[in-house]
Write a structure and sequence with these properties.
By secondary structure, this protein is α/β, with parallel strands linked by helices. 43% of the residues lie in helices and 14% in strands. The protein has 16 helices and 11 strands. Strands 2-5-8-1-9 form a 5-stranded parallel beta sheet. It has a two-stranded antiparallel ribbon with strand order 3-4. It has a two-stranded antiparallel sheet with strand order 6-7. A hairpin with a 2-residue loop joins strand 6 and strand 7. Helix 2 runs antiparallel to helix 4. The protein starts with 20 loop residues before the first helix and ends in a 5-residue tail after the last helix.
Length: 348
Amino acid sequence: MNQPPDLPAVQPMQPPAPAPPSQMSTSSVGESAARRAVLDVRDEVGKVIVGQQGVLSGVITALLVNGHVLLEGVPGVAKTLLAKTLAAAFDMQFSRVQFTPDLMPSDVVGLSVLDQVPGQAPTFRFREGPVFTNLLLADEINRTPPKTQAALLEAMEERQVSIEGTTHPLPKPFLVIATQNPIEYEGTFPLPEAQLDRFLFKLVVGYPTEEQEHDMLARHHGGMDPHATADLVKAVATAEDLAAARREIDRVTVEPAVLRYIVHLARATRESPSLQLGVSPRGMTWLLHASKAWAWLSGRSFVTPDEVKAIAKPCLRHRILVRPELELEGTAADAVIDGLLATVPTPR
């Protein structure tokens, strides 16, 4: 299960590693059907996506804990393709919305339309928007105005849409994968902190390695069409597998010392002189749930500080704000988190 890293950051996040043999007999979650199905999804997506295994593991982790993901990367690094392929492997309904400056909230969530049938009184009927799906790809989400961005707030947090006083529940499962380009900022609308905090992870999608790019070119030269997902990828997991996986993750144990460690990390971000905004209680809760899922993917039935450290940057980097004067000097959120991980005492 050792895979290439996903993030060109200070310390790239690696996909979960298997539990040591000494722990497998007494502390393993076992090779359940749900875990096998989830791991099969990662292998199935690998038929289309070359590299980016750490990013894929992060997205799967988010799906396991009912979270959302913000993918940041330059054009052409397979962000959209990853989302589409993952939906196919999980046998989920997929919708894609291209966020543009003229996109309206009703283009995302839907609207009420007037039905006029001859001989009957006119009635209003709700026409569902693309948000009514299992996996919604919000492509280039920072290119649409705040009013349209806010249309996703209720959907992401409460898994429902309210139109004219009527609440419409979203399908289960429901996952938002949003993308943004870190290079072109002209004509963009940065996501507000309230919306950023609703994403479980912010994953940085970097370039593949030289060998991975060679493998990719060889596949294309051989005639592979990466957009023909129906021919390349088969459904190897279902919503039932996902529900079973979530039940198993709920049973992953967390010692009080590890809970306290998560609290100390979150509070350290609020007290850091390098930051003007620290991690919210919601972010701290997400760090716990993601750590449990990461341990489960690793084959462990308990969470160690290593799991917390492995997902700390993807889970926290978008929830903190570096002070402007330090940001001008080149200090990044990842570097601050690395410093906190090095200074906050790790439980033994």
